[in-house]
Automatic annotation (TrEMBL):
The keyword Repressor applies. It is found in: Cytoplasm; Nucleus. This is Max-like protein X. Residues 18-40 are annotated as: Disordered. The lineage of its organism: Eukaryota, Metazoa, Chordata, Craniata, Vertebrata.
């Protein structure tokens, strides 16, 4: 009986010790988990700060590039440098700078097209002058080689009458065939008229007809 009582007492003591140990263990915090969370939070904050700084720098560079672009446009476009009395001394807005740039580019395109048309016209004039120069040189050379032919030459008045008769005949067909409502129609009609009424045989018949009409004046 004494041994049984002693064992029971020891069992109660062990049971109470285990319960106290488990309670104490449960009340002690998990330091490993807390250390892990403690280290993750600063890393997240550091990563966010780095991204925020990188985004801020990229945005600043973008704004600086845009500002430089508008400043360059104002320096290049002459109309942006002129005083705008409707605005006064205020700084030009981005919308006004862009509009003035567009207007100036359109003006340059018109001027370029106008200069190209002038150059094309001058080239045609130069070509015509070269042809006239060659013809006059041939006429002068012919007179120099045969100076005695000038006695029996046709008068300038008769030459003009022959020329007038040929041109009058050509103008009749030209006036009946050519449309002048637009430049495109004029160009198309001129080429078709040349192919139809300026053939060598047609011109020969016209010249012979004019000479027959002026035969009495020639002899």
């Amino acid at each position: 009986a004494a041994l049984f009582v002693e064992n029971a007492r020891k069992g109660n003591i062990v049971s109470r010790a285990n319960s106290i140990g488990s309670t104490s263990a449960s009340s002690v915090p998990n330091t490993d988990d807390e250390d892990s969370d403690y280290h993750q939070e600063p890393c997240k904050e550091l990563y966010k700060d780095q991204r925020r700084r990188a985004h801020t720098q990229a945005e600043r560079k973008r704004r600086d590039a845009i500002k430089k672009g508008y400043d360059d446009l104002q320096a290049i476009v002459p109309t942006c440098e002129q005083q705008d009395f409707s605005i006064g001394s205020q700084k030009l807005s981005k919308a006004i700078v862009l509009q003035k740039t567009i207007d100036y580019i359109q003006f340059l395109h018109k001027e370029k097209k106008k200069q190209e048309e002038e150059v094309s016209t001058l080239r045609k004039d130069v070509m015509a002058l070269k042809i006239m120069k060659v013809n006059y040189e041939q006429i002068v050379k012919a007179h120099q080689d045969n100076p005695s032919e000038g006695k029996d030459q046709v008068s300038d008045e008769m030459k003009f009458n022959v020329f007038q008769g040929i041109m009058d005949s050509l103008f009749q067909s030209f006036n009946a065939s050519i449309s002048v409502t637009s430049f495109q129609e004029l160009s198309a009609c001129v080429f078709s008229w040349i192919e139809e009424h300026c053939k060598p045989q047609t011109l020969r018949d016209i010249v012979i007809g004019v000479l027959h009409q002026l035969k009495s004046q020639l002899y």
